[in-house]
Amino acid sequence: MDIKPGIFEILFDKAESFGKTTYEISKLKALDTTTVVATSVVSRISVILMLSMFLLVFNIGVALFLGEFLEKIYYGFFIVAGFYLIAGIILHFFLHKWIEKPLSNLIITQALK
């Protein structure tokens, strides 16, 4: 003897199926967002690393050039270090918000895609 399922059993089965599907979709969206953010961060870090290496070698060259010009090699390194000290102070006091706000907006935008 077959017993026909009642309306509540059918509704319960559909709700359970909907819940499982919603959970799977949420997992896939989270995975997609994580992947986008991670790949964006990795690509930006690699570019920043290459630019940092260029700047390091360039600064050593400038310091050596200035040192040769001033007849004491270490004078060139002091001048380059002083330049970066002044630039760091300016960035810290005047441009901190100018750098922080776009960077935080970039991270939020990437996370909400």
Key features of this structure:
mainly alpha, rod-shaped, single chain, 3 helices, 113 residues
**Low-pLDDT sequence parts:** none
Determine the number of helices (DSSP H or I, runs of at least 4 residues). Answer: 3
- The coarse silhouette is rod-shaped
How is the main sheet built? none
Gyration radius, in Å: 29 Å
Determine the structural class based on helices, strands and strand pairing. mainly alpha
Mean pLDDT across every amino acid position: 85
- First-to-last CA distance: 53 Å
In total, the number of strands is: 0
**Residues in helices, as a percent range:** over 70%
Question: H/E element string?
Answer: HHH
Strand content: under 5%
Tally of structural domains: 1
Q: What does this entry look like structurally?
A:
- This protein has one domain.
- The chain has 3 helices and no strands.
- With 113 residues, the chain is mainly alpha-helical.
- The model has no long low-confidence stretch (mean pLDDT 85).
- It is rod-shaped and about 100 Å long.
- α1 packs antiparallel against α2 (73-93) and α1 (7-70) packs antiparallel against α3 (96-112).
- The protein has helices spanning 7-70, 73-93, 96-112.
- The longest helix is centred in the middle third of the chain and has 64 residues, at 7-70.
